[in-house]
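Researcher: Here's a chain I'd like modeled. Treat it as a single chain, no partners, no ligands.
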Amino acid sequence: MKKSVLTLALVVLVVAAPVAVVYAADAGNVVAAAGADVGSSSVKGLAALGALVGIGLAALGTGIGQGIGLSKACEGVARNPGASGKITTTLIVGLAMVESLCIYAFLLSLGVLINQKMFF
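Model: Modeled as a single isolated chain. Structure tokens:
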């Protein structure tokens, strides 16, 4: 389990880092052509990298949490099929709560990117 989590985190970093570096290089060329300070492009690149890593870790954590919750719910229904209705209801509410954490991280990442004026 730990090996697969570390592999997934490494894949996220390998995919996210080049995107942020390319964006920072492109932003640096645009800023340099406009005659402005080039230092702000590195901040935008780091903001993009931070947003990507943040949402990646949030998705990773919520995915693991949802998987554990679902496995325990399946075990509970297998042990006591009569309680499947209550277990399912509790499971759905719990999964919605866990998923809301990932949505909050997504909105926070969008806030960082909008604050750096990445979309304009």
